[in-house]
Specification:
- This protein is an alpha+beta fold.
- The chain folds into 4 domains: 36 residues; 93 residues; 87 residues, Beta Complex (RNA Polymerase Alpha Subunit, Chain A, domain 2); 86 residues, RNA Polymerase Alpha Subunit, Chain A, domain 2.
- It is 19% helix and 42% strand.
- Strands 9, 16, 18, 19, 21 and 22 form a 6-stranded mixed beta sheet that branches. Strands 2, 8, 11, 12 and 14 form a 5-stranded mixed beta sheet that branches. A 4-stranded mixed beta sheet has the order 4-1-3-6.
- The relative contact order is 0.10.
Length: 316
């Protein structure tokens, strides 16, 4: 009975007793923890990578490896510092010929790591291969514009001024192979909204390559919008660059077209419509009969061509 009485007295709620028990457990835990840290262990440790090369002349075409995993053995204290990020060294890899270096085998890394691991000993490199993709850096200038035909308007509304893009060109800088795939000019796509008021928005420049830097990354697109109407117009047809010793037979000397103009400027359009011409360029047209769609020249900036009649002609 005396044994059970002792246990009962020990675990009976008594602030002094529990304080003493807690201190004993804490002391035992600290002793075990410090004793464990004095032993040697093997574990995988992640080390950040840093590649050294001439960044003025070269640029990665794919993201470079960020880290390498190494199986190391060391004192518990040293391993704890690595896991806590204390004094964690970056593995510096110098690339003398960055364009020619496509991969680095993991087994070649220990000499680079030896001087940066302190008291840790390398067992083996966990990361098998580091793949490198670096190219020569270059830059090009690209025109940017908006295709007016791709803008959608609310019924009865339309564009009544030219589309302005500021700036009208951007600089693209990046890997040479990517730059060669880019066009000379870039079309800025607007959201498919039905526009019914003056438009002024900043639009991102999208090239499709994360490795290509755009300067600036956004452009401003603006144009005026107002109520519009369609005007039917008869315009004179001109033939240009007619080949020598070639006869042309056509079924008309003028064509009909439909032009969209602001309601407030219909009278202005009628007064200046005499300067509008339909034109067919025969420079590369082959002999024989065919239908040809002429281009329209001389439209005022506020007017937009909707349709134009085709012309049946024969060259012989």
């Amino acid at each position: 009975m005396s044994f059970f009485r002792v246990l009962n007295n020990l675990f009976r709620f008594n602030r002094t007793n529990w304080r003493a028990v807690s201190l004993c457990f804490l002391a035992a835990t600290v002793f075990w923890f410090f004793n464990a840290l004095n032993k040697f262990y093997s574990t995988n440790v992640r080390f950040p990578l840093q590649f050294e090369y001439d960044q003025q002349k070269y640029v990665p075409s794919q993201p470079l490896p960020h880290d390498v995993y190494v199986n190391v053995m060391g004192n518990g204290w040293d391993l704890l510092r690595k896991y806590l990020g204390l004094k964690l060294p970056a593995v510096v890899i110098a690339l003398e010929r960055p364009v020619e270096t496509k991969k680095i085998v993991g087994s070649t890394l220990p000499p680079l790591l030896a001087s940066q691991l302190g008291n840790l000993k390398i067992n083996h490199i966990v990361t098998d291969t580091l793949y490198i993709s670096i190219e020569a850096k270059d830059s090009i200038r690209m025109k940017v514009f908006v295709d007016p035909k791709e803008i959608t308007f609310k019924k009865g509304y339309g564009r009544i001024s030219p589309v302005v893009v500021l700036p009208d060109s951007i600089q693209a800088e990046g890997p040479v192979s990517f730059l060669k795939k880019l066009p000379d000019s870039l079309v800025i796509e607007l959201p498919p909204n039905e526009v019914h008021s003056n438009y002024r928005e900043q639009m991102p420049v999208k090239l499709g390559y994360e490795s290509v830097k755009r300067t600036p990354p956004v452009v401003e697109v603006m144009f005026e919008v107002g109520e519009v109407t369609e005007v039917q117009q008869k315009i004179k047809l001109d033939l240009v660059n007619v080949p020598e010793f070639t006869h042309v037979m056509q079924d008309r000397d003028s064509v009909g077209c439909i032009v969209q103009v602001p309601k407030s400027r219909v009278d202005d359009f009628q007064q200046t419509s005499s300067g509008i011409r339909a034109q067919i360029d025969l420079r590369e047209t082959r002999t024989g009969g065919r239908k040809v769609l002429p281009s329209v020249r001389g439209l005022p900036p506020y007017a937009t061509l909707v349709t134009v009649d085709s012309v049946r002609m024969k060259l012989y």
